[in-house]
Amino acid sequence: MINVLFVCLGNICRSPAAEGIFIKLVKDNNLEHLIKVDSAGTSGYHTGQESDIRMRKTAARKGYKLLSRSRQFTVHDFRNFDFILAMDESNYSDILKLDLNNKFKDKVFLVTDFSTNYTGQDVPDPYYGGEEGFYTVIKILEESCIGFLDYLKLKL
Ligand code: 4NP
After folding, report:
1. Which residue of 7, 36, 37, 111 shows the fewest CB atoms closer than 10 Å?
2. Do residues 3 and 34 lie in contact, with contact meaning Cβ atoms separated by under 8 Å?
3. pLDDT tens-digit map of 102-134
4. Does domain 2-153 match CATH 3.40.50.720?
5. Contact 18/118 with Cβ under 8 angstroms?
């Protein structure tokens, strides 16, 4: 089993979208028995909440159902997951700040590291912006998730 965790700040917009997109991709490839998917936020601001309604609506228009509830990233996630994929550089460095003994750096990536067109770029935080930002999130994540699954397939 490969365990994958997507991480953003609030775990109500970008990482739940990544989780929903990747779950669908895994299902469409008949790989549910091999890949488990979850998401978390570096902050606990929205713990227990459903994904942001704007993110859910935009995702639904693109065919993705977002069902997760917000939870905060914890140090236990370093052991429980094989791949920890951050949405932006700030999430990435906040995650690594919790890796006190520098043991888990090899598991932590920027989600766009697996993208072709957005390599190394942040998935922009859509929370304080307009509707377009939510479509941008989906567009970058769809492409990055396809790249990531292609990468995982080489390991299965
Ligand atoms: P996310 O978006 O990190 O993609 O879930 C945000 C959600 C909430 C806040 C910031 C970003 N906030 O400041 O409450």
Report:
1. 36
2. no
3. 999 999 999 999 999 999 999 999 999 999 999
4. no
5. no
